[in-house]
Design goal:
transmembrane; membrane; single chain; nine-stranded mixed β-sheet; alpha+beta; elongated; 195 residues; 31% strand
Amino acid sequence: MQNKPDPAWQPQPQAAEKSPNMRLGLIGMAACVLMAGAGLHFYGAGKTQPGNAVAADSAIGADSQRMGLPLNVIAPQNAEQALAGSSFSAQQQADILAAVKRRDVRLVAMPVYDATGAGGMITLVCGPWQQSVGLTAKPTTVILPISMSGNVDIIPSAPPGPAGIGSGAITVFGPQTLPVLYKQGDTLALTVIAQ
């Protein structure tokens, strides 16, 4: 009688195929987690319901309610040209240019547009400076002087209609629709991240 040795172990075809699929699945899941984290970071994880806004302001501060908006920086050598095309007065342009040269502020470009088709006029308040712009479907670039990360408030320049004023901004990631402002006293608080 002759004893035959047991056949050597060989991986099954299905087991060999699961490894690449599992790896792709883990990579996909990691990408989803990263995107969700980035979304929470840039678009405001600290949002509360309107009824709880007063409690949230006193408990964790008003700055946590700001929506993050990453915008493109204008190079310092292009600051004078960018300011020349803005709606700032000659004196304001000189003051802002001096602050850019001292490196107290940086200029960012914020293209804004009408996201809802209702039109309207908004005022962007950035520190001591403010600019009003009419919203159209074609983006209008507004120049903002900010520090590394600055606060910008958007308020209606005139009473919004029944549909409100729905603006949008083009960020470094593409177009971003902003929350609608429904009444004259509404303020949309943004934190601009210069990139």
